[in-house]
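ok so I'm stuck.
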Amino acid sequence: MKTSLLFGIHMHQPVDNFDWVIEMGIQTCYEPFFEVMSRYSDFKFSVHCSGWLMERIEQLRPSLYAKIVMLAQKGSIEFFSAGYYEPILSVIPAEDRVAQIRRLNDSIKERFSQVPQGLWLTERVWESALIPDLSRSGIGYTVMDDYHFQCAGFDSEGLDGYYMSEEGGVPMGLFPISQKLRYAIPFLTVENALLAIKSFNRKEDSAAIIFDDAEKFGMWPGTHEWVYKKGWLEKFVQTVLADESIETRHYGEYFKSRHPRGIAYLPNVSYYEMGEWSLKADDALALEALKEEMGLERYEREGVKFLKGGIWKNFFVKYPESNRLHKRTIELSRAFHAGEGDFELPLHKAQTNDSLWHGVFGGLYLPNLRDNAYTYLIECENIRYGKKKVLVSDTNELDGYPKYKSVTSKLIARFDAAHGAQLVELDVRDKCFNYQNTLTRRKEAYHKRLFETPCEKSVPIEEGIDTIHHASGSFDDTLREAIIYDWYLKNSFVDHISDECFDAESFRRCTFSEYGDFANQPFESSQSKDSITFFRNGGVYRGEKAKATLSKRFTFGSDSINFAFGLESKATGRFKYVMEHNLHFSDYETLLINGIPLEQNGNIDNIKSFEIIDTVLKKKITFRMDKPCHAYYFQLHTLSQSEQGFDLSVQCLSIAFVFDFEFSLTIEGTLEITRV
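replied:
not stuck anymore, here's the structure
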């Protein structure tokens, strides 16, 4: 009695990722993997590679591409489809799902003479509403974790074949990927990995199902030496081929020749870790505590069916920056399908998933990934509007408050009435760059690890290597000191009312006294032909509440935003009004502040003009105000988890313009962006 081994790898890199990352992936993972597999064409396996990455492999390493073509011609590889630029399919419109899948289908047919029937489900994010669109795209079956099935009440013992599901009567085959195999291959010894495969030898038609990241075979920490230098992969392939109780098969071959195990209706879910990551920090810690209280044995036996994290779309709730990116792609998709311009290609590139979420991989926390997404969003807008000058509003972000967008010949600026009437997007059109691409410092569940004693490796080295989900890093006081949380979103034109204690350090640590209720509260708004006005009846809370009102009016030049603010308060005493700006740059080491190289922090007294020279984009950003003020600035860092441990990265330049006032204050000024 033979076990069918359904072995698949998923290859992906974020669209426009750094060339050195792609080169490292090729050298440490993709090239050595296919070099080994090219010597064993009898080993059948499946491959999904995102369209953009396959383009780069062909360009950068033709010899590697030739090996993939050769294995396809020999019948070793079955190719799986997906969205060409690797979007999360459930969060893009149906028309774009079908177009992206068909784009990759056509590429696979042209490159490898195959018509894919299977689909790699990006980040294994499942919603049954996908089924009709997958079917329309020529897909007959897809893969997801056995965890998906367990969440629907299935026992792990029966997950050794495929199941059928439907949506509106449209059928779809569902293959459960084994968690046991995901954690065994390639991390355990070959002997133990083979035992894990053979544990599925229950029936004549049993299948051991694995479809996982190719990057585990060389690119994850510690895996290159283990998989190639110590010969794990070659020994694994040789041993499987020599074992008469195991037969490697393609998913399509198994799907056509075997009956389904039954029917399955699965909830909206991704893999378990993703469910944890999408929760708010305290909820993620509470979930982990419940899991520990239950105990590993009981959790694996019954708790997995009931203890679940959040759903993938929670990332749009958890991170307003992610939600903003996503809703901008939705807006542009509607515009494209309404015939407002031919920008399908940059739209599809903007829909890539990597910048929208965060877990053990950097994702949203990596400024370059968000930059890449905004590059294509702005490219879409440039095609959409051309030389038009427009001022429009929408409620696309679903919070009930309008977002205003000004488009001029050189700039695109967006304001959000829901959150302090902040400037949330500031695009220079000729460079396709968003200076407002910032990220707020917030609590993450993994910050707790910085204050715990690192535990020993969970897998003894003689039995294999550890996965990045279990690996522990080394921590120092520098990382612990970097944990700072903001209580408001870090965009621009943020309004604070503070006192004489406001200084550079309290600004950096976000510990200054706040007496106003303007920084993170909604404003009423109105729009005229050429201006936007925001207004809030708020208060000053030093002792009892004293009424206060703040109006903010913006008008737009081709390369400038003109502002006029009016603050009226019934509060007595002297205060400091703080106008905060947070601006993102591609390179902070080359910035000049009023002609001086940027340092980690600084302050300038009695100024009416504040100038930033961006030597990379060759732009000068100038703030001019009609009243003198004191300016503080610092480089804002975020501390995030990554597959390497922890990353401390610069997210923006934070600037505070501080004005003394008593009872009332008016300020007029200009934010201008010009060529250097």
